[in-house]
Amino acid sequence: MKHLVDLIGTRLKLGDASPPCRLIDIGGGTGNFAQALMDRHPSKFVTTVVDPFLDPTASGKDVKGLDFVKESAEVFMSTNPDDNDGSSKEDAAWRKGYHKVLLKEVAHHFKASDRVKIFKGMYDALETSNDSNNASSSSSSLLIVTRPQVEIDYPLWDEARQVWKENQPSATDFMAELEQAGFVNIQQTLEPYPCQIPLDRWQSMVRSKFWSTFSNFSDEELEAACQTIAKDYAERVDKDGILHFEDRLVFISAGK
Asked: pTM, whole model, 2 decimals?
């Protein structure tokens, strides 16, 4: 996780941030990753973790500068924190006065028809960057971390790769939608890193449908797929039965 913390910190320029910088971590779950970012850049910023499936115990974490909101990203598409929409001022306060937005492995879950509206809501309430070493107002303020639509290296089979493609927006799609929402200085990079796992462990994970991609297949189809994987990736399995492949992350940064 340290490598990913460093990559995200660099893309969001968290090392250059200065108080009262605030990061919104959309879909941040337990807050463990947000805490790792804060530990890496102490006293640089505070964080609000926003997650619709928030564990009730998460908000009780005693971490200075880290708070939690049980809400979905879709709230950004329908309401303005300054509008009289029925929310109390206290409830809506977290939706303004922030300087950075992180969407780590979550944006692909948004409905395609909603994404521009969600991004627009985030853009409208985003404060101009206060990076201490960058006077430009278009420095990185929002970061999407996702995966490629096509150029993936996971040990899959043709039908699974097609399902993946149909459910994973492309980086080009995200970039166009961010531009429609008003963001500028939109850039993307691809970060590959080596992974390894015992082949039998990977096959077991496929059979258990650990990714939603695999829920589109019957148990019989998955069993056959496991045999296909063993055959097609035989050259990537070492003498100890370890399967080697690349994980590839797409980083899309944008500014205001």
From this structure: 0.88
